[in-house]
Write a structure and sequence with these properties.
Blueprint (H helix, E strand, L loop, with lengths): L9 H9 L3 E3 L2 H6 L13 E4 L3 H13 L2 E5 L5 E7 L1
Antiparallel strand pairs: 1-2, 2-4, 3-4
């Protein structure tokens, strides 16, 4: 799992500290989750691959606390939209 650098957002830092699954905020990983086999494309702010249901629920709480919209990206993956709603 890549290490969060000094430029990591507070959301990324918090997810990395509280989630043991993959927390993907690099541009390559985000690009992989930007489309869903259609013409529709939105670059997510980040992607979380939780290891347990409890971790998934924790990631949702963290994203909600940050004002993010979360969508299921693929089986067992969560993509966080870049805009705050």
């Amino acid at each position: 799992m890549p290490n969060a650098g000094a430029g990591a957002s507070k959301l990324e830092q918090r997810l990395r500290s509280e989630i043991s699954g993959d927390v993907l905020f690099d541009s390559f990983s985000r690009g992989r989750y930007a489309t869903d086999a259609s013409f529709y494309q939105i670059m997510p702010a980040g992607v979380v691959v939780p290891r347990t249901v409890d971790e998934a629920l924790r990631a949702l709480d963290i994203a909600r606390d940050d004002g993010r919209t979360v969508t299921p990206a693929r089986r067992r993956h969560l993509a966080m939209r870049p805009d705050r709603q």
